[in-house]
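Hi there,

I know you've been waiting on this one. I reran it after we fixed the sequence typo, so this is the corrected version. Both the input and the resulting structure follow.
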Amino acid sequence: MSGRRRGWRVWVGRLVLALVPACHEPVADQPQPRERPSAAPNERAEGSSEPVVDEPSAYVGVVISPRSVDLSTEVPGTVVELGAALGQPVVEGALLVRVQTPTLSAEIEAADAALNQVEAARVEQKLLIGAAERELAQEQQLASAGIGTAQERARAQLELDRARAVEQRLTAQHAQRRAELRRLHVQRDTGRITAPFSGTVSTWYQPEGAVVSPGDRLVRLVVVDRLWVRFAVPVDDLHLVRPGGAVDVLPVPEGRRLRATIRHVAPELDLASQRMLVEAELHDARTLKAGQACHVSLRSAASRPKAGPVADDHHAIVASSTEPTVAPEGM
Protein backbone atom coordinates (compact mmCIF):
# COMPACT_ATOMS: atom_id res chain seq x y z
CA MET A 1 0.00 0.00 0.00
CA SER A 2 2.85 2.35 0.80
CA GLY A 3 4.46 1.55 -2.55
CA ARG A 4 1.35 2.64 -4.42
CA ARG A 5 1.27 5.96 -2.56
CA ARG A 6 4.91 6.56 -3.29
CA GLY A 7 4.34 5.93 -7.00
CA TRP A 8 1.35 8.26 -7.09
CA ARG A 9 3.35 11.07 -5.55
CA VAL A 10 6.16 10.57 -8.04
CA TRP A 11 3.75 10.71 -10.96
CA VAL A 12 2.09 13.91 -9.66
CA GLY A 13 5.46 15.56 -9.14
CA ARG A 14 6.51 14.82 -12.71
CA LEU A 15 3.25 16.24 -14.03
CA VAL A 16 3.80 19.47 -12.10
CA LEU A 17 7.35 19.82 -13.38
CA ALA A 18 6.12 19.35 -16.92
CA LEU A 19 3.40 21.99 -16.63
CA VAL A 20 5.39 24.72 -14.86
CA PRO A 21 7.78 25.49 -17.77
CA ALA A 22 4.84 25.58 -20.14
CA CYS A 23 3.30 28.41 -18.15
CA HIS A 24 6.45 30.52 -18.67
CA GLU A 25 6.83 29.95 -22.41
CA PRO A 26 6.52 33.18 -24.40
CA VAL A 27 3.24 33.68 -26.12
CA ALA A 28 3.40 34.19 -29.83
CA ASP A 29 3.28 37.80 -30.91
CA GLN A 30 -0.21 38.82 -31.69
CA PRO A 31 -1.24 42.13 -33.24
CA GLN A 32 -2.44 44.51 -30.51
CA PRO A 33 -5.34 46.87 -31.23
CA ARG A 34 -4.21 50.44 -31.62
CA GLU A 35 -5.66 53.01 -29.30
CA ARG A 36 -7.51 55.67 -31.13
CA PRO A 37 -5.95 59.08 -30.31
CA SER A 38 -8.30 61.45 -28.57
CA ALA A 39 -9.31 64.47 -30.54
CA ALA A 40 -7.50 67.66 -29.62
CA PRO A 41 -9.56 70.45 -28.11
CA ASN A 42 -11.44 72.59 -30.61
CA GLU A 43 -10.86 69.97 -33.42
CA ARG A 44 -13.67 68.45 -35.43
CA ALA A 45 -13.83 64.73 -36.13
CA GLU A 46 -13.36 63.77 -39.76
CA GLY A 47 -16.63 64.14 -41.60
CA SER A 48 -18.30 66.00 -38.72
CA SER A 49 -20.37 69.07 -39.55
CA GLU A 50 -20.43 70.51 -36.01
CA PRO A 51 -18.79 73.96 -35.71
CA VAL A 52 -15.65 74.43 -33.68
CA VAL A 53 -16.41 76.35 -30.45
CA ASP A 54 -14.23 77.62 -27.65
CA GLU A 55 -14.62 76.02 -24.26
CA PRO A 56 -15.88 78.39 -21.53
CA SER A 57 -13.23 79.94 -19.32
CA ALA A 58 -13.77 80.63 -15.62
CA TYR A 59 -12.29 83.41 -13.50
CA VAL A 60 -12.54 84.75 -9.98
CA GLY A 61 -14.39 88.06 -9.78
CA VAL A 62 -15.64 90.52 -7.20
CA VAL A 63 -18.98 92.33 -6.98
CA ILE A 64 -18.55 96.12 -6.99
CA SER A 65 -20.72 99.18 -6.74
CA PRO A 66 -20.94 101.31 -9.88
CA ARG A 67 -20.55 104.45 -7.77
CA SER A 68 -19.07 105.03 -4.33
CA VAL A 69 -17.39 107.88 -2.48
CA ASP A 70 -15.61 108.55 0.81
CA LEU A 71 -16.63 111.95 2.19
CA SER A 72 -14.12 113.91 4.28
CA THR A 73 -14.23 117.05 6.38
CA GLU A 74 -12.55 120.27 5.27
CA VAL A 75 -12.71 121.96 8.66
CA PRO A 76 -11.46 120.96 12.11
CA GLY A 77 -14.00 120.38 14.80
CA THR A 78 -16.27 117.86 16.50
CA VAL A 79 -18.81 115.53 14.90
CA VAL A 80 -22.06 116.76 16.45
CA GLU A 81 -24.66 115.08 14.22
CA LEU A 82 -25.00 111.92 12.13
CA GLY A 83 -27.83 112.33 9.67
CA ALA A 84 -28.32 108.67 8.71
CA ALA A 85 -27.84 105.21 10.16
CA LEU A 86 -25.59 102.50 8.78
CA GLY A 87 -27.26 100.88 5.78
CA GLN A 88 -29.89 103.60 5.48
CA PRO A 89 -30.75 104.84 1.96
CA VAL A 90 -30.46 108.60 1.46
CA VAL A 91 -31.37 110.95 -1.36
CA GLU A 92 -29.09 113.46 -3.04
CA GLY A 93 -28.55 116.54 -0.87
CA ALA A 94 -29.52 114.86 2.40
CA LEU A 95 -27.48 115.75 5.49
CA LEU A 96 -25.08 112.95 6.42
CA VAL A 97 -22.88 114.47 9.12
CA ARG A 98 -22.28 117.86 10.69
CA VAL A 99 -18.92 119.00 12.04
CA GLN A 100 -18.87 121.98 14.37
CA THR A 101 -15.81 124.11 15.09
CA PRO A 102 -15.78 125.21 18.75
CA THR A 103 -14.87 128.86 18.07
CA LEU A 104 -16.70 129.19 14.77
CA SER A 105 -19.97 130.43 16.27
CA ALA A 106 -18.16 133.09 18.28
CA GLU A 107 -16.20 134.17 15.21
CA ILE A 108 -19.40 134.51 13.21
CA GLU A 109 -20.99 136.65 15.93
CA ALA A 110 -17.92 138.88 16.14
CA ALA A 111 -17.77 139.31 12.36
CA ASP A 112 -21.47 140.11 12.23
CA ALA A 113 -21.08 142.76 14.95
CA ALA A 114 -18.12 144.34 13.16
CA LEU A 115 -20.14 144.50 9.95
CA ASN A 116 -23.01 146.22 11.72
CA GLN A 117 -20.59 148.73 13.24
CA VAL A 118 -19.18 149.62 9.83
CA GLU A 119 -22.67 149.97 8.40
CA ALA A 120 -23.59 152.40 11.18
CA ALA A 121 -20.44 154.42 10.55
CA ARG A 122 -21.30 154.62 6.84
CA VAL A 123 -24.77 155.96 7.65
CA GLU A 124 -23.26 158.61 9.96
CA GLN A 125 -20.69 159.59 7.36
CA LYS A 126 -23.34 160.06 4.71
CA LEU A 127 -25.03 162.54 7.06
CA LEU A 128 -21.73 164.43 7.47
CA ILE A 129 -21.31 164.51 3.69
CA GLY A 130 -24.78 166.03 3.35
CA ALA A 131 -23.96 168.71 5.92
CA ALA A 132 -20.66 169.56 4.21
CA GLU A 133 -22.43 169.88 0.85
CA ARG A 134 -25.00 172.28 2.30
CA GLU A 135 -22.29 174.40 3.96
CA LEU A 136 -20.36 174.62 0.70
CA ALA A 137 -23.49 175.64 -1.17
CA GLN A 138 -24.15 178.39 1.40
CA GLU A 139 -20.60 179.77 1.09
CA GLN A 140 -20.98 179.87 -2.67
CA GLN A 141 -24.20 181.89 -2.36
CA LEU A 142 -22.50 184.34 -0.01
CA ALA A 143 -19.63 184.72 -2.43
CA SER A 144 -22.08 185.50 -5.21
CA ALA A 145 -23.64 188.23 -3.05
CA GLY A 146 -20.19 189.69 -2.35
CA ILE A 147 -20.32 188.82 1.33
CA GLY A 148 -18.35 185.61 1.77
CA THR A 149 -14.61 185.21 1.43
CA ALA A 150 -12.54 182.79 -0.62
CA GLN A 151 -11.05 181.26 2.51
CA GLU A 152 -14.46 180.22 3.81
CA ARG A 153 -15.33 178.62 0.47
CA ALA A 154 -12.02 176.70 0.45
CA ARG A 155 -12.58 175.50 4.01
CA ALA A 156 -16.11 174.23 3.16
CA GLN A 157 -14.78 172.41 0.08
CA LEU A 158 -12.03 170.75 2.14
CA GLU A 159 -14.54 169.48 4.72
CA LEU A 160 -16.66 167.99 1.98
CA ASP A 161 -13.68 166.24 0.40
CA ARG A 162 -12.61 164.81 3.77
CA ALA A 163 -16.13 163.49 4.45
CA ARG A 164 -16.25 161.81 1.07
CA ALA A 165 -12.81 160.20 1.61
CA VAL A 166 -13.92 158.77 4.95
CA GLU A 167 -17.07 157.41 3.31
CA GLN A 168 -14.98 155.62 0.70
CA ARG A 169 -12.79 154.11 3.42
CA LEU A 170 -15.88 152.90 5.28
CA THR A 171 -17.25 151.38 2.09
CA ALA A 172 -14.07 149.35 1.66
CA GLN A 173 -14.21 148.22 5.29
CA HIS A 174 -17.81 147.23 4.84
CA ALA A 175 -16.94 145.03 1.85
CA GLN A 176 -14.08 143.45 3.82
CA ARG A 177 -16.33 142.69 6.81
CA ARG A 178 -18.96 141.17 4.54
CA ALA A 179 -16.38 138.96 2.86
CA GLU A 180 -15.08 137.76 6.24
CA LEU A 181 -18.59 136.96 7.42
CA ARG A 182 -19.33 135.13 4.18
CA ARG A 183 -16.13 133.07 4.61
CA LEU A 184 -17.17 132.05 8.09
CA HIS A 185 -20.61 131.04 6.87
CA VAL A 186 -19.04 128.97 4.12
CA GLN A 187 -16.78 127.33 6.69
CA ARG A 188 -19.83 126.53 8.79
CA ASP A 189 -21.63 125.11 5.77
CA THR A 190 -18.53 123.11 4.87
CA GLY A 191 -18.96 121.31 8.16
CA ARG A 192 -22.30 120.07 6.83
CA ILE A 193 -21.57 116.98 4.74
CA THR A 194 -24.41 116.17 2.36
CA ALA A 195 -24.97 113.27 -0.03
CA PRO A 196 -23.60 114.04 -3.52
CA PHE A 197 -25.91 111.38 -5.02
CA SER A 198 -28.67 109.03 -3.91
CA GLY A 199 -27.23 105.92 -2.29
CA THR A 200 -26.80 103.94 0.92
CA VAL A 201 -24.56 104.65 3.91
CA SER A 202 -21.95 101.90 3.83
CA THR A 203 -19.46 102.88 6.54
CA TRP A 204 -19.13 105.41 9.34
CA TYR A 205 -15.46 106.24 9.87
CA GLN A 206 -16.06 108.61 12.80
CA PRO A 207 -18.63 108.30 15.60
CA GLU A 208 -20.65 111.18 16.99
CA GLY A 209 -18.52 113.24 19.35
CA ALA A 210 -15.23 112.47 17.59
CA VAL A 211 -12.72 115.30 17.12
CA VAL A 212 -11.64 115.48 13.47
CA SER A 213 -9.13 117.40 11.37
CA PRO A 214 -9.28 118.54 7.74
CA GLY A 215 -8.97 115.53 5.44
CA ASP A 216 -10.32 112.94 7.91
CA ARG A 217 -12.82 110.54 6.32
CA LEU A 218 -16.29 110.63 7.85
CA VAL A 219 -18.68 108.44 5.87
CA ARG A 220 -18.79 106.17 2.81
CA LEU A 221 -21.74 106.31 0.40
CA VAL A 222 -22.40 103.61 -2.22
CA VAL A 223 -25.00 102.72 -4.83
CA VAL A 224 -26.39 99.24 -4.15
CA ASP A 225 -29.58 99.07 -6.18
CA ARG A 226 -27.53 98.03 -9.22
CA LEU A 227 -24.22 96.19 -8.95
CA TRP A 228 -21.40 95.21 -11.29
CA VAL A 229 -18.80 92.48 -11.33
CA ARG A 230 -15.10 93.00 -12.05
CA PHE A 231 -12.72 90.26 -13.17
CA ALA A 232 -9.38 89.87 -14.96
CA VAL A 233 -8.97 88.02 -18.25
CA PRO A 234 -5.57 86.56 -19.27
CA VAL A 235 -4.07 87.40 -22.62
CA ASP A 236 -4.90 83.96 -24.05
CA ASP A 237 -8.65 84.63 -23.67
CA LEU A 238 -8.82 88.18 -24.98
CA HIS A 239 -10.60 86.97 -28.11
CA LEU A 240 -13.60 86.04 -25.92
CA VAL A 241 -14.02 89.58 -24.54
CA ARG A 242 -16.21 92.13 -26.23
CA PRO A 243 -18.48 94.92 -24.91
CA GLY A 244 -22.05 93.69 -24.90
CA GLY A 245 -21.03 90.07 -24.44
CA ALA A 246 -22.84 87.89 -21.89
CA VAL A 247 -21.18 86.21 -18.92
CA ASP A 248 -22.40 83.85 -16.20
CA VAL A 249 -21.82 84.82 -12.57
CA LEU A 250 -21.92 82.29 -9.74
CA PRO A 251 -21.75 83.97 -6.31
CA VAL A 252 -19.60 82.58 -3.49
CA PRO A 253 -20.89 80.83 -1.45
CA GLU A 254 -22.66 79.06 -4.27
CA GLY A 255 -26.04 80.44 -5.16
CA ARG A 256 -28.15 80.71 -8.24
CA ARG A 257 -26.36 81.55 -11.46
CA LEU A 258 -26.79 85.16 -12.60
CA ARG A 259 -26.36 86.81 -15.95
CA ALA A 260 -24.30 89.93 -16.65
CA THR A 261 -23.40 92.03 -19.68
CA ILE A 262 -19.89 93.31 -20.35
CA ARG A 263 -19.88 97.12 -20.27
CA HIS A 264 -16.28 98.26 -19.79
CA VAL A 265 -13.04 96.77 -21.06
CA ALA A 266 -9.68 98.17 -19.99
CA PRO A 267 -7.73 99.70 -22.89
CA GLU A 268 -4.48 97.95 -21.93
CA LEU A 269 -3.11 94.88 -20.17
CA ASP A 270 -1.62 94.93 -16.71
CA LEU A 271 2.12 94.59 -17.33
CA ALA A 272 2.82 92.42 -14.29
CA SER A 273 -0.03 89.89 -14.60
CA GLN A 274 -0.67 90.14 -18.36
CA ARG A 275 -4.39 90.33 -17.66
CA MET A 276 -7.03 92.82 -18.66
CA LEU A 277 -9.70 94.16 -16.32
CA VAL A 278 -13.29 93.70 -17.46
CA GLU A 279 -16.45 95.07 -15.84
CA ALA A 280 -19.92 93.64 -16.43
CA GLU A 281 -23.32 94.90 -15.26
CA LEU A 282 -25.40 92.37 -13.34
CA HIS A 283 -29.00 91.95 -14.46
CA ASP A 284 -30.38 90.94 -11.06
CA ALA A 285 -28.21 91.58 -7.99
CA ARG A 286 -30.79 91.86 -5.23
CA THR A 287 -29.23 89.02 -3.24
CA LEU A 288 -25.60 90.16 -3.66
CA LYS A 289 -23.42 92.53 -1.65
CA ALA A 290 -20.64 94.80 -2.88
CA GLY A 291 -17.29 93.16 -2.19
CA GLN A 292 -18.68 89.62 -2.48
CA ALA A 293 -16.55 87.10 -4.39
CA CYS A 294 -17.93 85.23 -7.37
CA HIS A 295 -17.01 82.94 -10.26
CA VAL A 296 -17.35 84.36 -13.76
CA SER A 297 -17.77 82.19 -16.85
CA LEU A 298 -16.76 83.96 -20.04
CA ARG A 299 -18.05 82.28 -23.20
CA SER A 300 -17.70 82.74 -26.93
CA ALA A 301 -20.69 83.57 -29.07
CA ALA A 302 -21.06 79.96 -30.36
CA SER A 303 -20.62 78.18 -27.03
CA ARG A 304 -23.60 76.73 -25.24
CA PRO A 305 -24.30 77.39 -21.56
CA LYS A 306 -23.89 74.46 -19.18
CA ALA A 307 -26.08 73.80 -16.18
CA GLY A 308 -23.29 72.57 -13.91
CA PRO A 309 -21.05 74.72 -11.72
CA VAL A 310 -18.06 76.45 -13.16
CA ALA A 311 -14.64 74.84 -12.95
CA ASP A 312 -12.60 75.22 -9.79
CA ASP A 313 -9.34 76.05 -11.59
CA HIS A 314 -9.73 79.82 -11.68
CA HIS A 315 -7.31 82.59 -12.46
CA ALA A 316 -6.56 85.10 -9.72
CA ILE A 317 -8.04 88.55 -10.11
CA VAL A 318 -6.24 91.79 -9.45
CA ALA A 319 -9.04 94.22 -8.65
CA SER A 320 -10.14 96.75 -6.05
CA SER A 321 -13.57 97.73 -4.77
CA THR A 322 -13.59 101.20 -6.27
CA GLU A 323 -16.20 102.39 -8.68
CA PRO A 324 -16.01 101.04 -12.29
CA THR A 325 -13.43 102.55 -14.59
CA VAL A 326 -14.93 103.99 -17.72
CA ALA A 327 -13.16 102.36 -20.60
CA PRO A 328 -13.56 102.67 -24.39
CA GLU A 329 -15.99 100.33 -26.06
CA GLY A 330 -13.53 97.81 -27.40
CA MET A 331 -9.84 96.98 -27.16
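Quick highlight: The chain has three helices and 14 strands.

Best,
R. S.
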